[in-house]
Design a protein that fits this description.
The structure is a homodimer. Chain A is of the alpha+beta class. Helices cover 41% and strands 15% of the residues of chain A. Chain A is built from seven helices and five strands. A two-stranded antiparallel ribbon of chain A has the order 1-2. Chain A starts with 8 loop residues before the first helix and ends in a 9-residue tail after the last helix. The mean pLDDT of chain A is 88. Strand 5 of chain A pairs antiparallel with strand 3 of chain B.
């Protein structure tokens, strides 16, 4: 049996974030919600479940507790905003523009934007076949083996 | 009690994707894995759990079954690649470049890229305070109320 690939940043992100509803809570928090009661009104989650999810967010360093009722995103939590933006964009892609219920806009003009993923330096779209995942300098043996034949190791 | 916001594209994305490990399976599939045994070797997931996760991916339209052992991403599944890229980038951001085990590179040159989220038309970064979520044309009354005071409804 091949060794399990445990050093994958995607797996690490997934583990740290925990359950998906985490993203909805962070999204609310980034929009300015902080009180337990606000999260509860917006998400209509049972008290115990909501409390447990917020605790997990604090545990994993994505939010911090202020006083005894306010949950505020940390820097690490804030740095998930690009993921939230791309998730919401993916949800919106299944709809025509007039059907969209929540959109990302330029705060000054109100004009809707269409988020895409590019390389910071070149501005080129990186969600194409021209860009591939591969083993990085810190890769384990398992990760190196996985990518030894380029991206085609499974084919 | 305010009505629950059910038309949020983020909530819809989260519901459709289901569990987080979905992303790891899709990532493997986008790298060229398709056979059940390949997923199992790479992710070392128990047979029943893996089978159930792959079935759910097929159910939700993100993958399709080819023959009786191959799972291939659909167009909808492929369209999650930008989310996967941003999740992996977030995982990598917690590490210095020499520590990174899996990186996104230009397939032709092998040079690592740094994925960021921009507006397709203007190329401006949209993960800043200059861009905010707001109610779109298809918003429910609940969504409209949530954003009635701009993004500051909770503050």
């Amino acid at each position: 049996v091949a060794p399990r690939i445990t050093d994958c940043p995607l797996a690490r992100a997934v583990e740290r974030i925990g359950e998906w509803p985490t993203m909805e809570l962070l999204h609310e928090a980034l929009d300015g919600c902080s009180r337990f009661s606000d999260f509860q009104v917006h998400l209509q989650t049972e008290t115990d479940v909501l409390r447990s999810r917020l605790y997990k967010l604090v545990d994993s360093g994505l939010m911090t507790l202020r006083g005894d009722d306010e949950y505020v995103p940390t820097e690490l939590g804030r740095s998930l905003r690009p993921v939230i933006i791309m998730l919401a964009a993916w949800g919106n892609h299944q709809l025509r523009p007039p059907e969209r219920s929540m959109i990302l806009v330029d705060a000054a003009t109100g004009v809707e934007v269409e988020p895409v993923v590019v390389d910071r330096d070149t501005g080129l779209r990186v969600d194409t076949g021209d860009f591939v995942f591969t083993a990085g300098p810190g890769a384990s043996k398992a990760m190196r083996t996985r990518y030894a034949l380029g991206a085609a190791v499974c084919e």
